[in-house]
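Justification of resources, computational component.

The compute hours requested in this renewal are based largely on the per-chain cost of generating structure records like the one below. Each record pairs the submitted sequence with a full structure-token output. That output is archived, and it is also reused by downstream analysis tasks.
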Amino acid sequence: MNASGQYYQAIQRHDYTTAYHSLDKNATITLQSRPVVMNSMHTLATASRALDTRDGGVSSYIATDGHFEQGTNIVNLTMKVTRTGQSYDVHLKLELASGSWKILSADGL
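The structure output for this chain reads:
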């Protein structure tokens, strides 16, 4: 949960370098029904700025549900994200590797 909180805190502050370091090197985030590989900080920043322009900046976020995939170091986590009064759920998949959690995928930003 710490990686997801750090990620959203960084997105909220427009600190895309820190947010990018919360992602796995092959992380995929679904944007407008299309999976996008976040292969650079620039890709993440561009996507985040576009969403900020369209829906407003992230005003709050909270984990609402989570569970481990049995027999793995993977957790599925649901975050409730609020942008300018509008809330939505983002489903994250995180993996514990080399002692730190990294976001593998998300179905939103």
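Residues 41-55 form the longest helix (15 residues). DSSP finds three helices and six strands in the chain.
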